[in-house]
# Entry
Amino acid sequence: MTSSIKNCFMIFVILFLNSTLSYGEEQLSDDDLLIEGDSLENTLDRKLKASGNAVLKKGGQTIKADLIEYDQVSDELYAIGNISVEGNGGSLTGSSIELSVIENVGSIPNATFSSTLNKEGNSFNNVLRGKAKMLFLEGESKKRLQNASITTCDVGQDDWFIKASEIEINDSSQTVDAKDAQLEFKGVPILYSPLVNFSFNNERKSGFLAPSIGTTSRSGFESSIPYYFNLSPTSDATLTPRYLGKRGFQMQSEYRYLDKNYSGTSNLEYMNKDNATNRKNRYYAKFHHEQNLTDNMSGGFRMEKVSDDNYFSDMSSLISATSTVNLPQEAYLNYSSEKLDINFLAQRYQNLTATSSPYERLPSLTINHSDEFRNLDGFESFETNLRASLTQFERNHNFVASVTDLNTTGTRLTARPSIAIPFEKSYGYVKPKLIMNLMSYELEGSSTKSKSMVIPTLSVDSGVYLDKKLTLAGTSFVQTLEPRIFYSYTPYKNQETLPMFDTALTDLNLESLFIENQFVGGDRIMDSNQVTIAATTRFIDNTGYERLNATLAQRFYMGDRKVLKEAQFINSSAQSDSSDLFLTATAYINKALKIDTAIQYNPDESSTNRATFKTRYTPRPGKLIDVSYRLIRDLTNNDNDIKQINLAGQWPLGGGWSSIGRYNYDIKKSTAVESLGGFEYDGGCWASRIVVNRLSLATTEKPNYTLFMQIELGGLGSLGASNDANLFDVLNRNVPGASFASGIPDQYRIENLK
# Structure
């Protein structure tokens, strides 16, 4: 039986999987199938044929064509003429289609397609589109393309394509695999790879990563092509061949693992021969492992080693690496509970300078216990703390100090039990504290073989909270005033015969004004009879926003600090009646403009020892200006004074362009410490950057110049930039808060594209 309906009269047929045929419009389930068209034929062999605006619907998928033929028995569909397939987060077009409807398996010649990407953040366009000589559907979410090209650019914007002999796309996992792939940018082939793998949702997948290119003045042209190994759900590895024009080939590797109870990384770098220095077997190794042994106990090790002292200055352009002088080699075991912490540490170093070397701890045991006891009124009646440490200090066998005392080794036991009685109310607090400082030594290489002493310390910390309402320039504020007084007393005991294993004077700053001991480490206890007076004021507007925070503080000495008269110390201002005067202030003129000031002023010498002035303007993401001045006086040698001006910023220029730069200038030395300048172009579905970085190195008179060139393709990551000097890290260090185009909200990106 055959029926036909003409003159564009529509017939709806719903075909259920049980082969029942019914008519009429119904709500479709995922198992239902609907066919419609200007003409519909149903034959006895259970074949349907729709022509003229033919449509087949099943679940969330819709197929349109000039002609659709569907075999109900074999579930085979053939369609021709103006083919379009919609559903499953994408669309397809082609000249014809052969399809197993239920399994969604079939082929489309001369196909075009688009898929919606579920990407996080602002990562350019969210659609992957392309075309293929032949497209194979392999299930609901998988497509395989032959002689194909893909891009994330909008229709009509064909700035870049990946062309490949075969491309596999998984819409569910948002991953792409391409064979015999070629990247074409602005019509020019710029990269070829036999295999390309990438993910739009950061899913881990084995394959080649984006190559890196760059150039530095010390190493010349650089290029690298990393290969990523997805070894398991909890581990991965990256192998990176790296070429340095002036030096030769280097192999880099990284292995990472992460589990519920352990994690770690292993990094290896090796160069057989450095052509620039003629050194052979140059390497860097770094291993780090952490292990949770129980709920309260953990352990691990950390090891770093390089082949020679100049490795980082030669091979890296990152200031954090080039300034490295001590590489740790340590193992540790930790126990932690609510009130008790125990740490066992064995630690040594590879030292990259001959002028100094830290003592090695072989081993060290540290115990810290704290507790609180409350009375019936809710006060913290007592706070107790005990910190004790037993350490064996040894010297690196390669280090020989020029001063005999620095070759001293031995065992040190320190303990610092304390008890505090805090009294706290809403309007203020008083907190007296008693500390007993215990030290005991067994030494070698010193005239003093053993020594023990106990030094008590008494301190009282107190403060008051005051506030009032006021109106300034028509705006209501709450002003707070928080006076604070801190008193500390420690009697003098001669410690001149004791070694200096790990101890140095604390840097005098606003925070250290409120600590009892002016030394860090366990070898010295400062004698003191001193009081610190401070006051903090805040201005808070009626929205709760803090518009101003300012603090003024100074310490006053009521006696000489005799420890500082010992031979190990040289401090011309040690016996002043007072410390420097400290002033800090942070003002928010509005939410975009912030001003920071910190001044350390010596009233006796009428001089400023330290000062920082910083203004930061950030009206929106991608727009910022940073201007700062820094002064640090060296009290022992004026030639080492630091006076620096820093200018940094990022600013959109329109037309998709934006600028970024930083200039750090040393006024004392009349030279630039570090400078950076560059531009970024936002192409909508891609971005390009070029940045030049100049860095002065402590190891050489000649600065290092690094050229970064990078192209970021929407959803595919970035090409270019030096491998060891990640461009994002360089920009973030030089211009904190700066953002790439892909990290700026769409509304501001669109604004800058105009």
Q: What stands out?
A: Residues 104-202 form a domain with the lipopolysaccharide transport protein A fold fold (CATH 2.60.450.10).
